[in-house]
Amino acid sequence: MMKSLPLTAAAFAVAMLGGCATNPMMGAGTPQASAQGYTINGAQSVQSVELGTVLAVHPVIIAGQSSGAGAIGGALAGGAIGHQIGGGTGQKLATIAGALAGLMGGQTLEGAAAKENGLLVTVKLDSGQLLAITQAADVQLTIGERVQVLMDRTGKARALPLG
After folding, report:
1. Listed residue (66, 51, 14) closest to 161, CA to CA
2. Average pLDDT rounded to a whole number, residues 11-36
3. CATH code, residues 31-64+115-163
4. What is the 3-state secondary structure (H, E, C) of the chain?
5. Higher pLDDT, 18 or 101
6. What's the rounded Cα separation, in Å, for the pair 33 and 48?
7. pLDDT given at position 128
8. What pTM was estimated for this model as a whole?
9. What pLDDT does 52 receive?
């Protein structure tokens, strides 16, 4: 019975890691910095709209925020696997080594899952003001394209094609 507890913990940890690749606020597969997606807090809020023209579009990588679930899940899984090795002091050392390796692996996995492709879009507003907006690459914009720039009261902005 004691040997099944570490295996159960390992299975739970692996299941937790699988959840790291999606953003629960935006739905599965929706980028966190989506130009089209909204969180529940962003929905039904007033945004100012200005029109402009795209001057430049550069690909960027947007690093997401780590929740720590990957590190915790990895440590649990690694420790559970390490606990299966040997007995006595050797088992304790294997458990610690497995937990440390799992912690680092889980942290790396979560970091990789949290990254998304983005765009740095430079827009010249009709007012003459220049803006640089970083957003997910879920909306393709081209140089010379007319866009609407939506800005909320906190200063977060997104550029969307007109029409």
Report:
1. 51
2. 48
3. 2.40.50.100
4. CCCHHHHHHHHHHHHHHHHHHCECCCECCCCCCCCCCCCCCCCCCCCEEEEEEEEEEEEEEECCCCCCHHHHHHHHHHHHHHHCCCCHHHHHHHHHHHHHHHHHHHHHHHHHHHCEEEEEEEEEECCCCEEEEEEECCCCCCCCCEEEEEECCCCCEEEEECC
5. 101
6. 18
7. 97
8. 0.51
9. 97
Q: Return residue ranges of the chain for CATH 2.40.50.100.
A: 31-64+115-163
Cα separation, 43 vs 150, in Å, equals 13
Going edge to edge, which strands form the sheet with 157-161?
Answer: 130-136, 116-125, 48-62, 146-151, 157-161
* Residue tagged 């990957």 (tokens): 70
Indicate whether 19 pLDDT > 80: no
Which residue in the block uniquely carries the two structure tokens 């909320």?
Answer: 152
Which pLDDT tens digit goes with each residue over 51-63?
A: 999 999 999 998 8
Interacting residues of 75 by C-beta distance below 8 A, sequence separation 6+? 13, 99, 100, 102, 103, 106
Q: Amino acid identity of 123?
A: V
